[in-house]
Amino acid sequence: MSIIFRQKREKYKNILDKYEINCYYRSDVVYRPAGKGQPGKNVKGTQNDISGALIMDIVIKISAVWLLIVNLYGFILCRIDKKRAVKHLWRIPEKRFFITAFLGGGPGVLAGMYTFRHKTKHVRFTAGIPAISIVEYVLIFLLLWKVWR
């Protein structure tokens, strides 16, 4: 999204340079100061386009970091539960695996399941975790598709 932000910024900069207008940005209004005998004026819309691209860029970066962390957590969760199962210690509840998958960590849990050969004989896990992940990522894709169109 930063490419789109730069393109929009350059587009508006070129337009403003063409008309020799300086701009000062506020929250949702671009103020163009008076020049060559013309009064200054507030123009809505330009800043919103630039802010929207910047916000989407930040949201995408935060989402990527979140998915990385929650998938790593799911992977480590499988490792810890496998160690506890081998030593016959207190186990991690199954709902924690599913909550992690619902929060975006399905691929991490799935990778942990098959890496450590843990819970691979349970149909709830072998079918449930991939199903949650597929539905989740399809919804994310559709949401992003609608936003970017």
Global geometry: elongated
User: Order of strands in the sheet with the most strands?
Assistant: 1-2-3
What is the radius of gyration? 25 Å
The main sheet comes to: 3 strands, antiparallel
Number of helices: 4
> Which band does the percent of strand residues land in?
5-15%
In total, how many beta strands? 3
What proportion of the residues is helical, as a percent range? over 70%
Question: Helix and strand string, N-terminal first?
Answer: HEEEHHH
> What is the averaged pLDDT score?
77
List keywords for this structure.
71% helix; single chain; 3 strands; 149 residues; elongated; 3-stranded antiparallel beta sheet; mainly alpha
Provide structural commentary.
With 149 residues, the protein is mainly alpha-helical. Helices cover 71% and strands 7% of the residues. It contains 4 helices and 3 strands, in the order αβββααα. It has a 3-stranded antiparallel β-sheet. Helix 1 (2-18) runs antiparallel to helix 2 and helix 3 packs across helix 4. The longest helix has 41 residues, at 46-86. It starts with a helix and ends with a helix. The model is unreliable at 19-32 and 39-48 (pLDDT under 50).
Task: Write a concise synopsis of the structure shown.
The chain has 149 residues and is mostly helical.
Write the layout of secondary structure elements.
Layout: H1 2-18, E1 24-25, E2 29-32, E3 41-44, H2 46-86, H3 94-115, H4 123-148
Antiparallel strand pairs: 1-2, 2-3
Helix pairs in contact: 1-2, 2-3, 3-4
